[in-house]
UniProtKB/TrEMBL annotation:
Listed cofactors: Zn(2+)
Family according to the record: Belongs to the MsrB Met sulfoxide reductase family.
Top-level taxon of origin: Eukaryota
Database matches in InterPro entries: Met_Sox_Rdtase_MsrB, Met_Sox_Rdtase_MsrB_dom, Mss4-like_sf
Listed Pfam families: SelR
The entry's keywords: Electron transport, Oxidoreductase, Redox-active center, Transport
Keyword DNA-binding: no
Domain MsrB per the UniProt entry, residue ranges: 12-153
The protein's name in its UniProt record: MsrB domain-containing protein
SUPFAM superfamilies linked: Mss4-like
Organism per entry: Penstemon davidsonii
Length: 158
């Protein structure tokens, strides 16, 4: 079993100073980035009147370069690019995180399982099981793009 990442503790003011307003909202206040553009085109029959919804912020949704995805708050490595797949949901999807890097906890309503950075507690998104995606774990880590930063494979190995 891999060792847990070092704990990162900051005050709300310190987090606000280093994160953008959107990153603070998602990572520290458990928000969700907009993905309306992707949902509209993936599920037009559900949202037929939403043809002009704005493009979502999920810039890593259709991004498949080789590297590592780190926590945008504390830079802890979370996911290898080799675990990323196209789930069609509009957010980046991974089938597993790096060992010890991600914590899971049930949402207060018990309907979903939240995933957070094990080092800083930043909200990443949610994990879903049993959806039938052709991945080894039968899991989908649905991650907000704003919650992660991509480090290319060359930079990650330096």
């Amino acid at each position: 079993m891999a060792a847990a990442p070092a704990s990162v503790q900051k005050s709300e003011e310190e987090w606000r100073a280093i994160l953008s307003p959107e990153q603070f909202h998602i990572l520290r206040q458990k928000g969700t980035e907009s993905v309306l553009y992707s949902i509209n085109f993936s599920f037009p029959s559900i949202f037929p009147d939403k043809i002009n919804w704005p493009r979502g912020t999920g810039h890593y949704d259709k991004f498949y370069d080789d590297g590592i995805y780190n926590c945008a708050g504390c830079e802890t490595p979370l996911y290898k690019s080799t675990t990323k797949f196209n789930s069609g949901c509009g957010w980046p999807a991974f089938f597993e995180g790096l060992p010890g890097a991600i914590n899971r906890s049930p949402d207060p309503d018990g309907r979903r399982t939240e995933i957070t950075c094990a080092a800083c507690g930043g909200h990443l998104g949610h994990v879903f099981k049993g959806e039938g995606h052709p991945v080894p774990t039968d899991e989908r880590h649905c991650v907000n793009s704003v919650s992660v930063k991509f480090v290319p494979v060359l930079a990650a190995s330096e």
